[in-house]
Design a protein that fits this description.
Blueprint (H helix, E strand, L loop, with lengths): L13 H4 L7 H4 L27 E3 L13 E6 L3 H15 L14 H5 L6 E6 L7 H9 L6 E3 L3 H6 L7 H4 L19 E2 L2 E2 L1 E14 H6 L11 H12 L9 E4 L7 H7 L9 H4 L2 H15 L9 H8 L10 E7 L3 H7 L4 E4 L13 E9 L6 H13 L1 H10 L12 H9 L4 H4 L10 E2 L7 H26 L4
């Protein structure tokens, strides 16, 4: 608790590279013994302008700060200055027992929170949706404005440049980290050498998207969220029938983007690294790559097109904006972008499994809150970070003040899931993950993960060679 007297592109080969998107706790500090340790580069379609999308600093203006407020906590996240102030006031109100019976973050009177004068200062640095990178952090550090708590999409790089402090000792004392209320597996990507550095703040899921406008052209009136590799292949086959006379649609965009998620989905396996020769020999990996190859060789995917075919079909427009795609892979944190272009026809499907009518394990990418290595009050900063990430009332208030599309919470509270997920657009899809979260599989796709980048390169090169061989076979020049 704060002392009151002191103180996230996918694989793209050459055709495939044109739109490249390089895809608990230490025993919960009582049970689990060690952890593993994540860039997420967006496609080349234009981002939707949103407030606070740039990394700028917000301050409280010219308001004078009483001398008694000797503790200042600086937060770098996508949350607005106003939201952070309300959260800080809620934090103080709960610590002092000021909330009445039945008062939660969902119904607390904002006028009541406005009336609270907290004995510490919270300042806010605004970041992009999935946090800040090491370039911005180093700029802040050089200027002497390093935040105490920050959300990042570059965990590995942040740790490698010693910009974050280990927080295991502070987490061990925090009652919010109990195994019956948080998902311990979300903590595992953010530890290194037995030390916890980050806590999961926002999490997105890997899914298949589809455009029902294109689907209906192919006679498909509805799609099920639960997909198998056979049902997906049948769907692509139906869409391809639209191209009998001339190519009018592309059934699947960049089948290679399903790697590395596919082995985990189809076989409920932990993440298999393409750059690890042992992982590539796993049956799950070999079968998944074979499935991707079959989509490409059937002519269903962007990798199947020649340069001339691509130009003729899309006329230089990004395929993702063309409204000529049936299915593509992505993560739910891009929902806002896709929804902007197809607000009434966008649907979600799970990554395909092997058996009919079964859910695959959630394939998750999580973005952490970290405490700066230069923070003067790391325990207080860590306590506040845990409150932002794990306290039910904090999450309810955040969802109320600044709802965000496409993210899943790190806690199992039904009230949080109802407020945080079910009420958002596309929440009916995301809500289906709730009973599956305990068997979620974490994909180390947060930017800066050298191993993940190597995996992208391997798959990209593999599919490029596959295309070269395909062209030679068609030309009769492959001996």
């Amino acid at each position: 608790m704060l002392s009151l007297t002191r103180d996230s592109e996918k694989i793209h080969n050459t055709r495939f590279r044109r739109l490249r998107r390089p895809f608990a706790l230490f025993m919960i500090l009582t049970f689990v013994s060690c952890f593993s340790a994540c860039k997420k580069v967006h496609n080349d379609f234009p981002s939707i302008p949103v407030t606070e999308s740039q990394q700028t600093t917000q301050t409280s203006g010219n308001e004078s700060v009483p001398e008694t407020k000797s503790l200042e906590i600086k937060i770098a996240s996508p949350l607005s200055y106003e939201t952070c102030q309300y959260l800080a006031k809620l934090y103080y109100a709960k610590s002092e027992g000021m909330l009445g019976d039945g008062v939660t973050g969902d119904n607390v009177d904002l006028a009541f929170l406005d009336s609270i004068d907290i004995p510490f200062v919270v300042n806010v640095y605004s970041t992009s949706e999935n946090g800040c990178n090491t370039t911005t952090l180093n700029q802040w550090k050089t200027s002497g404005d390093m935040p105490d708590i920050f959300l990042t999409d570059s965990f590995d790089q942040v740790i490698g440049e010693s910009l974050a402090a280990p927080i295991s000792e502070y987490l061990a004392e925090n009652p919010l980290l109990s195994a019956d209320r948080i998902y311990p597996g979300l903590l595992t990507p953010f530890s290194l050498d037995g030390k916890q550095y980050g806590i999961p703040y926002q999490t997105s899921a890997a899914v298949l998207f589809c455009d029902m406008e294109v689907m209906r052209q192919g006679g498909i009136s509805s799609v099920s969220f639960r997909q198998t590799r056979s049902s997906l292949m049948q769907m692509l086959s139906e869409l391809e029938k639209l191209n009998v006379e001339e190519q009018t649609v592309l059934p699947f965009y960049l089948a290679g983007n399903m790697m590395p998620f596919l082995p985990s989905a189809m076989f409920n396996k932990e993440y298999l690294s393409a750059s690890d020769p042992k992982d590539r020999t796993e049956q799950a990996y070999r079968d998944s790559m074979s499935y991707v190859e079959s989509i490409i060789r059937s002519g269903y995917s962007y990798e199947s097109l020649t340069e001339e075919q691509s130009t003729e079909l899309f006329s230089g427009v990004s395929p993702l904006l063309s409204r000529k795609l049936g299915v593509w892979s992505g993560t739910t944190d891009d929902l806002m972008i896709y929804d902007n272009y197809m607000p009434h026809t966008l649907c979600l499907m799970q990554y395909p499994g092997l058996r009919e009518d079964e859910y695959t394990s959630p394939l998750l990418i999580s973005y952490p809150l970290l405490v700066s290595s230069s923070c003067e009050h790391p325990k207080e900063a860590c306590d506040l970070a845990c409150f932002l990430a794990f306290d039910e009332d904090a999450l309810l208030l955040t969802s109320r003040l600044q709802p965000r599309l496409g993210y899943l919470p790190s806690v199992s509270s039904p009230s949080v899931w109802k407020s945080y997920v079910k009420t958002q657009k596309y929440g009916d899809y995301l809500e289906q993950y709730q009973p599956l979260m305990t068997k979620a599989i974490m994909i180390p796709a947060v930017s800066g993960s050298a191993g993940y980048m190597q995996d992208q390169e391997f798959v990209s090169d593999y599919i490029e060679k596959l295309n070269i061989k395909k062209v030679r076979e068609e030309d009769g020049t492959d001996t």
